[in-house]
Write a structure and sequence with these properties.
- With 162 residues, the protein is α/β, with parallel strands linked by helices.
- It has one domain: Rossmann fold (3-Layer(aba) Sandwich).
- The protein has 6 helices and 5 strands.
- Strand 4, helix 4 and strand 5 form a beta-alpha-beta unit.
- The longest helix is centred in the last third of the chain and has 19 residues.
- The chain is globular, with a radius of gyration of 17 Å.
- The structure holds 5-O-phosphono-beta-D-ribofuranose.
- One of its GO terms (molecular function) is phosphoribosylaminoimidazole carboxylase activity.
- It comes from Crenobacter oryzisoli.
- It catalyses: 5-carboxyamino-1-(5-phospho-D-ribosyl)imidazole + H(+) = 5-amino-1-(5-phospho-D-ribosyl)imidazole-4-carboxylate.
Amino acid sequence: MIDVGIVMGSNSDWEVMQHAARVLKDFGVAFETRVVSAHRTPDLLFEYAETAEARGLKAIIAGAGGAAHLPGMLAAKTHLPVLGVPVPSKYLRGEDSLLSIVQMPKGIPVATFAIGEAGAANAALFAVAQLANGNPQLAEALKAFREKQKQTVLAMALPEVQ
Ligand code: RP5
């Protein structure tokens, strides 16, 4: 059973979105990846969103760049949580993507993450946290991940000033 769908507007988004896939893979969460373009394949977008819940998905991570309407349109067509990842764009460095995704009018939410790699990874970590609610094994894995990060920072040394 697939728990999380990772969708993106183009295969050019993969460089960023692969970081969401990496996190889910590391946590052993079952996911699928698809290219679904809001403006180039709108019928596919509708079909994907309309069938997601029945196929057992618990959340959709959607990344897009520019006039990034993919996450918002998915959210309009499914009750599942949609986690939006702004992909850096060629001319506006992803600020356009961020504003397009985050400024959803009241009533149809999209949980919006940071531009780029950090946003993709954090969207996946957020999905893991959602799934861990009711899954003790996943909750333990998430705690261990946090602990590892903590130990990494505690072990950081700074250079001596000469
Ligand atoms: C958006 O347009 C995609 O999400 C991508 O970020 C951007 C550019 O797409 P390509 O021209 O690289 O296919 O729909």
